[in-house]
Each structure stands twice: as C-alpha cells, then as structure tokens.
Amino acid sequence: MEGLLYEILMALALGLFGAVLFSAIGLVSGTDETTTLAPLTMLVVMLGAPPAGILTFFLAGAVAKHMTHAVPTALLGIPGDTMATALIGDANYLRRLGVPHVALRKMITGGAMAALIAVPLSVLFAVLLAPFGDVIKQFAPWVFLCAAFAIAYFSAGRWASVLALLPFVLVIVALQALTAQHDVKLAVSYFLGIAVAPLIASLFSLLAPGEREKMRRDGFRVFSLAPDMKGWKGYFPNPFRVINKRQRRMTAMAASVTSATFVFSPVAMTVIMGEVIGARIKQAYERLTTVITARNGVTESTYIAEALIPLIAFGLPLSPVAAGPAAPLFNAPPRFTVDSATGEVNNLHNLLNYWEFFGYGMLAVFVAILIAYPFSMSFAHRAASFVFRKISHEAVISTFIGLALVVGIWEGGLLGVLVVVTIGLIGGFLGRFLGFNIGVQFMGYYTAVLSVPAMLAVLR
C-alpha cells in the first residue's frame, strides 16, 4: 500500500511539474514539441523517476502545451509550435474579424475536451490491438522498415523523404561502427541529435555569410497583441458556456476518430478533420469557430493516441509521435530498451498494466487542465505580453541545445557530442530543404538499429 501511495504521489508531483513547465513553454512561439518534450522526458527517465511519474510528466506536458500554444497563435498570429501551424489560418481570419479572444477560448476548451475523450479511447483501441502484439514484435525489424517508408511518404517531403531515408540510415550505421571501434555505445545521443536538429541547423546557418545576411533584420519585429476581454467571474470558467452544442459534438467526433488513426501524421490529421468539419457548415463565422475548436482538439487527441496506443499494445514506437516526442517512453538506454535482434521490449509497456495506463493517463489530463485551462483563459494577455517583452527566444533555444550537449558528454564524452552535432546538422538541413521531418528521422534511427542488422543477417 505504501508503495502504491508513493507511486501515486510521484505521478501527481511529476504531472504537476510537467503541466506547469510546458504551460510556460507553450507561450513561447516556435517551441517545437519534439525539441522540448523529448529531451526533458529523457531527462526524467534518466533521473530514475517511477514509470507512472514518467507517463504523467509526458502526458501532462503535452496536453498543457497544446492548450497554451493557442495564446501566441490566437493573440499574436504566430504559431505556438509545429501543431499550431494547422491552426494559424483560421486564427488569423478571426483576428481580422476582431475576435481573437473568442478563437483563444474555443481552442483551449476544444483541447481540454478532446484530451478527456482521447485517453479512454486510446486505451480501448490499444487493448483491441494488443492480441496482435506478439506477431508484430516477431517481425519488428520489417515492421519498422515498412513504417519508416510509410511515415516518410506521408511527410511533407513525400518521395524526397523516402529517398533520403537511405543516406540518413547509412550515416547512423557508419557512426555506430565508428563509436564501436572506441568501445562507446550510444543511443540517447542519437535521439537528442534528432530532437534538436532544427536548432543546430539554424545555428550553423548563422556561420554562413549568405544565410546570415538573409536572417539579418534592420529593426525589431512588431506584433499587435489583441486586447484582454474576460466575460466571466472567478478563476475557472465554465467550458460549456465557451463552446456551443454543435462545437462540442464536432470536437468529440474529431477526437474519437483521430484517437484511432494513430499511424498518420498529427498535423495532417488536424488539417483533414478541419476540412471535413468545415465542409458541413455554411455560415462563415460558425464555420471558423467550430473548425478551430475541433482542430485544436485534434492536436491533443492525436498526440495522446499516437503515444499511448503503440506503447500499450506493442511497446514499439510505430507512429510519428511515438518515434518523435514520445520516443523516450519506448527507448532510453540503459533503462528502457528495444532489442534489435528479437524485437523484445523493456519499457513502460512492461511496467504498467492497462488500468494503470488509464488511471495515470486521466490523472495527467486532469492535472494539465487544472493548471493550463484557467491560466490560459484568465491570464493569456498578460502572459503573452511578458513572454514577448522579457523572455529571450535565443535563451530558450540555448537551454535545449545545452541540455543535448550535456547528455551527449554524459553518455559518450567527445564522441557523444560529435554524434549529437552530426546527426543534428544532417537531420536539420534535410528537414529544412526536403521536408524530411523529425518523425521520419526517428524512424530512420530505428531502421538503422533494428532493420539493417536483420537485413544483413538474411543476406549472409
């Protein structure tokens, strides 16, 4: 009983920490989910947090971030993160109509509602898929190879990403061979190199005179912050007064559908569900507010489903989110591992049962809503003003790059740092110019460590 109480308290504490931390990070525009969620979740794993605490930290962080990312998106007209890029068009239309506060409140409420729906549905779908887990694990190297090509094809780069997989995988195999000659075995360094790849590519671009000249600005960028308009009393607004019956119904439908489509790109599903819902509504204002409500809900449901379903059912990262931001939940050596020869796993899949995934998942969502929902609804204007006036974007970027380099030194010394920089540089430029996104890069890593040895064994 004492052990259970300790685990619940640790899960609650780490959930609170994740919700508070990522509520703040979500206010900073352009803070990509993988660049922020993956390194910090990896750090929590490496520090020895209990399995339930790791799960609640990740889920509470993801849910909170996808609520507060609505603040810069709606009030300033700039995407809060990668997922918010699918929302920026509708948000800007509502800004022009003079109702950005309406967009903000509906986005946040839609996200909270979808998160509450996504956890139980994700666990249910995982339970239905679990009987096929042993078969999938047996063919894990080939499953990863097929999944890598599928995720690459559905990325922004399409065939360019598919073709870029081969050289990217070969670079990882070559780096593994190099570090093995010096008796250094790396895993976390590859993850962090991929996670901070866009940041490393941007820093290297500054060293090139031509690119530096393109980035040069003559003055400060000016943003117009929408006014603060609070239409309720108290700290916690009533969600049912924020969105109407149709918006609740459409958001619930979108969250339910996208809780099952865990193998597809979350950004793509956000765009598609918005188009499907928008086509059913004729009145322009109602269409805009309903679509932006449902789309922000989909940013929550896709992240939750794409992390939980493969984790619960298979223990293998077989989705873009599982291979990207949620990667430390699956593979964080030496604590969590995926065996390259057999496909056997040792991670949260083995350490938590279905009811624990459900219980701690709902705890994480409730904690995130209790922290991020009233904060975003009541203090969005002041928070956005403070962040854009006082917080240095460069300082935030430097913090995450510094974390990646420290972990690289811890795992492999100078070789670890070189791997982080090399993978980050290559992955960053492939992502920038070919649309070879972070999810595809993570699948490339798994292909290198799982599929390539299996292919070589067959050829022998």
TrEMBL record:
Q: What is this protein called?
A: Tripartite tricarboxylate transporter TctA family protein
- An example of a Pfam family matching this protein is TctA
Query: Which terms are listed as keywords in the entry?
Result: Membrane, Transmembrane, Transmembrane helix
Residue spans crossing the bilayer: 6-28, 40-64, 110-133, 139-156, 163-181, 187-208, 250-273, 357-375, 396-426, 438-459
User: Which residues are in the DUF112 domain?
Assistant: 13-433
| Domain of life of the source | Bacteria
Q: Which InterPro entries match?
A: DUF112_TM
Give yes or no: UniProt keyword Glycoprotein: no
Q: Can you name the source organism?
A: Pseudomonas sihuiensis
Q: Which taxonomic lineage is given here?
A: Bacteria, Pseudomonadati, Pseudomonadota, Gammaproteobacteria, Pseudomonadales
Q: Looking at the keywords, is Membrane present?
A: yes
